[in-house]
Specification:
This protein has 16 helices and 11 strands. The chain is globular, with a radius of gyration of 20 Å. The model has no long low-confidence stretch (mean pLDDT 94). Helix 1 links the parallel strand 1 and strand 2. The relative contact order is 0.12. Helix 14 packs antiparallel against helix 15.
């Protein structure tokens, strides 16, 4: 029997790569639900190809366009459509690949209803924090990591989140397009420069996050909640080749590393087929003999201080990780529109963390309130 999957955020980078894998594994996987925010053309084509029984979109107006699809799927739209699609599609696994905090309510709903989640939307765990962690512990719902770094650690730990005997997690970072640069070099860095990632092909927002190292900050926070380790046991190390995806150091000082090709579709396939392991359907095996070298270096947290701010947010807990995430989201959007300079991304995050530190953060509703408050403040400052 084929595993039924729902792909939420199917038109984005991870979502489209998930469909790439599903396309090659039709004997193993059945796509029963796909959703999109605004890209109706891509959604329409994907629906015609996979013929999922459920489609969901944000806008009711966009939903009317989908009525022209010939095979007659259920079409959901408007507030709560994402959650209704995830819960009502009959999926055995929900791939949560939507952007930002938009996936938080659906993630919580899947957890409460014990629907396994392949988590590509790290912001849901970063913002959900202790609230979501409590639901995970209460229900025991399976959460499978899709980020290559967390997937690597999961594999090293024999497909568990058991951190017993671990001295340190080492999350690798490529360093992005500005590796080795100093603050003086980045004062006039343009969006076009920041989008030239040396290794990975990703969406614009996550590519900018890679340039600022904010993405590694989000991954540190996610690793804390997934593996239950204090922040002083989670280290970021720059590895320009992106072949080693993460490492684990044990108390005897031995280190295990997971190596793999630079292709997000490999951790996606692992999550989709779990617990089965099959040959990677999208590429060839890694040829170590052809690798010239593997190098490692410490991150420059003074120049790329978004990473330092993420550690501060995790240490403070409460609303801080939510504030870090939303301020970064808005700041990146402002940078891409050339409303602010590159170095101002971290400045806006730090300002927001100071301004809203007293907010309550004890429920999903309060988390969403913090998100909306910070977002409104920052957008109002720049009239966007």
């Amino acid at each position: 029997m084929r595993k039924k999957i729902a792909v939420l955020g199917a038109t984005g980078s991870v979502g489209s790569q998930t469909l790439d894998v599903a396309r090659r594994l039709r004997d193993e996987l059945e796509v029963v639900c796909i959703t999109a925010h605004t890209d109706m053309e891509v959604l329409f084509k994907a629906a015609e190809e996979f013929k999922p029984k459920t489609l969901a979109v944000t806008s009711t107006a966009d939903a009317s366009i989908l009525k022209n699809i010939g095979y007659g799927p259920e079409i959901l739209s408007g507030k709560g459509a994402l959650t209704r699609a995830a819960l009502g599609s009959g999926a055995d696994l929900v791939v949560l690949a939507v952007d930002g905090i938009a996936g938080l309510e659906t993630f919580a709903a899947c957890l409460k209803n014990k629907i396994p989640v392949a988590l590509a939307n790290k912001e849901s765990l970063v913002c959900g924090g202790d609230v979501v962690l409590g639901i995970m512990k209460e229900t025991g719902t399976q959460v499978l990591p899709v980020d290559s770094e967390h997937s690597a650690i999961f594999q090293i730990l024999n497909h568990t989140y058991d951190s017993a005997g671990i001295k340190k997690l080492m999350i690798t970072a490529s360093g992005g397009p500005f590796r080795g640069k100093k603050r003086s070099d980045l004062e006039n860095a343009s969006p076009q420069m920041a989008l030239r990632h040396p290794n990975w092909s990703m969406g614009k927002k996550i590519t900018i996050d890679s340039a600022t190292l904010a993405n590694k900050g989000l991954e540190v926070i996610e690793a804390h909640y997934l593996f239950g380790l204090d922040l002083n046991k989670i280290q970021v190390i720059v590895h320009p080749q992106s072949i080693v995806h993460s490492m684990v150091e044990f108390w005897d000082h031995s280190i295990l590393a997971q190596l793999g090709p630079v292709d997000m579709r490999l951790p996606i396939q692992k999550a989709l087929l779990f617990p089965k392991m099959e040959p990677f359907v999208m590429g060839s095996e890694l040829n170590l003999a052809k690798l010239a070298q593997l190098t490692f270096e410490a991150p420059d947290m003074e120049t790329f201080n978004c990473l330092a701010l993420a550690y501060q947010a995790l240490e403070a807990r409460g609303p801080m990780t939510t504030i870090f995430n939303v301020a970064n989201e808005v700041a990146v959007a402002l940078f891409l529109k050339e409303k602010i300079k590159f170095l101002a991304i971290a400045d806006l995050i730090e300002e927001s963390m100071g301004k809203y530190s007293g907010e309550s953060c004890k429920s999903i509703e309060e988390i969403l309130h913090i998100n909306d408050t910070v977002r409104k403040y920052l957008r109002g400052r720049y009239d966007v």
